[in-house]
Amino acid sequence: MDATANGEKGLHARVLESLGPAITAGDHPPGTVLRTDELAERFDVSRTVIREAVRVLESMHLVASRRRVGVTVRPTEEWNVYDPRVIGWRLAGRDRPRQLRSLTVLRSAVEPVAAGLAARHATPAQCAALTEHAMGMVATSRGQQLDAYLVHDTAFHAVVLSASGNEMFARLAEVVAAVLTGRTQHHVMFTDPDPAAVTLHVQVAEAIRTGDAARAEALTRQITAGAMAELDVLAP
Amino acid sequence: MDATANGEKGLHARVLESLGPAITAGDHPPGTVLRTDELAERFDVSRTVIREAVRVLESMHLVASRRRVGVTVRPTEEWNVYDPRVIGWRLAGRDRPRQLRSLTVLRSAVEPVAAGLAARHATPAQCAALTEHAMGMVATSRGQQLDAYLVHDTAFHAVVLSASGNEMFARLAEVVAAVLTGRTQHHVMFTDPDPAAVTLHVQVAEAIRTGDAARAEALTRQITAGAMAELDVLAP
DNA sequence: CCTCGAAACTTCGTATACAGAACGTCTCGT
DNA sequence: ACGAGACGTTCTGTATACGAAGTTTCGAGG
User: Fold this and answer.
1) Distance B46 CA to D15 C1' (A)
2) Reported pTM
3) CA-based nearest residue to A193, from A127, A146, A129
4) What gap in Å lies between CA B180 and CA B79, rounded to an integer?
5) Which residue from B56, B109, B113 is facing A55, i.e. has the nearest CB?
6) How far is CA B73 from CA A3, B28, B76, in A?
7) Quick one: average pLDDT of B117-140?
8) What pLDDT shows up at residue A187?
9) What is the pLDDT of residues A154-202, one digit of tens each?
10) So what's the pLDDT on residue B190?
11) CA distance B50 to B46
């Protein structure tokens, strides 16, 4: 929603969108020191703007600002890897494979449990949305309609995560969306989705609708297992 | 001007530590409009400092800053609930029960998978640490040594998450620590830990050491199931 | 009377200048 | 050689001015 509408979003945001990816991509390896004056000159903005950008970077634990020494890039292990912006930057950068793998593993842990909870908590409206998107996936699963398929796939998983009733799960929707989008971008228009996966989605929708938590969880586990298997092809 | 050594940290951090909890606790309900001038006066700092704090709040998606209208508090569903600081604030505030429940559910999804991965990836050093902490838990499980027990318990789970080899899992260590600490604080020195749970930890350490992923996962699932069961007692 | 549009006002956004504090480094004295 | 203190660099905070943008209001025209 808010992300990357780079028209004129504020100077500090532009600095952030340039500095952040540079750091996460490793252009400034951990330990590198950046000085605010230098940055101000490099981006041709005032120090005030730089300081605001640095504050945000600091809140992501990407950098630490200390007097006399400068703004130092923190080691990778300390980064706030759950920050959607950090995820986006890493996904766009050079360790995209690693990030994709991490996120897929996270998916494989969270989504089955979320599906199980959804089977117990989903509202009728959510169940309806689920079956609708599952049908949509079926309808678009053949004949080079990957974009339309992706929309339904993303929406399906978002509804499941939301229906789980757990806010932490719900907030992973955009992460899952990023993973699914990434996969589609690599399939680039050549192979239709796996029919077995489509069937699984339909069955998950049904299991959630009928309140069969164990079945919803097991089926979703099969879906994520498939995603894990695909990973070896996608990520080197 | 007051020139007293008011705080060790920066001014903006102090504003943040006051504004953040206020927002997450609901003192400023979603939709509330805050003006930078007003905040500057309220905290007796310059607008620059306020704006830096607001930037960080904005990066957490707690607020949105718009011209002419002010800084508006965003709806709860949009908050970055994975930001450690947001978690901490909510854990300290009035919807602590909800947060505790969310985190425990997240634990129950992630930790079993992490344990399974740890069984395949753990280094000998990590295995040693695991058995050490498991033994420590055994040693401190009786006789009102809850503090020492908590240290070993926390360390145990941190090692498991780290040994999974997944950076996203590893970063959940502090979250798990927060949950475990919260639990201990409520048990307040009256009941010793459940012996069955202690045994499970020892068995998990063994399963990971012997590379039995399925067993490590199943056992950890029992541990988290226990935590979920406890939850009904702890969180209203 | 209603609608459309422009001006004005309010608030955030950016730039600049300066004072203060902290931390590394360099030098000097023992 | 080694430690303590002075120094300089760089971040931190403050104050102020101007610009931009949106909301609101007021007025003109239909």
Assistant:
1) 8
2) 0.91
3) A146
4) 24
5) B56
6) 18, 7, 9
7) 97
8) 66
9) 999 999 999 999 999 999 999 999 999 988 877 655 677 888 999 999 9
10) 63
11) 7
pLDDT at B1: 33
Rounded Cα distance between A142 and A62, Å, is: 43
pLDDT at residue B75 is higher than 80: yes
- Answer whether A108 touches B (CB < 8 Å): yes
Mean pLDDT on B71-85: 94
Q: What is the pLDDT of residue A5?
A: 35
State which amino acid sits at residue A174: E
Task: Choose between A124 and A2: higher pLDDT.
Answer: A124
Structure tokens at A66: 């200390």
Q: Give A189-221 pLDDT, tens digit per residue.
A: 567 788 899 999 999 999 999 999 999 999 999
Tokens 């993303």 correspond to A154
Residue with tokens 């056992």: B219
| B84 with A80: Cβ contact below 8 A | yes
The span from the CA of A217 to the CA of A230, in Å, is 20
Closest nucleotide to A50's CA, by C1' atom? C14
Distances (CA, A) of A41 to A8, A28, A33, A47, B10: 20, 17, 15, 9, 25
Please provide the average confidence, as pLDDT, over all residues in chain A.
90
Q: DSSP letters of A158-226?
A: HHHHHHT--HHHHTTHHHHHHHHHHHHHHHTTTSPPPHHHHHHHHHHHHHHHTT-HHHHHHHHHHHHHH
Residues of B in contact with A168 (CB under 8 A): 81-82, 102-103, 105-106
Instruction: Collect all residues of chain A within an 8 Å Cβ-Cβ radius of residue B55.
Output: 12, 52, 55-56
Nearest of A44, A42, A95, A51 to residue A71 by alpha carbon = A51
* Contact state of B109 with A105 under an 8 Å Cβ cutoff: no
Interface probe, candidates B74, B102, B117, B174, chain A, greatest A C-beta count within 10 A: B102
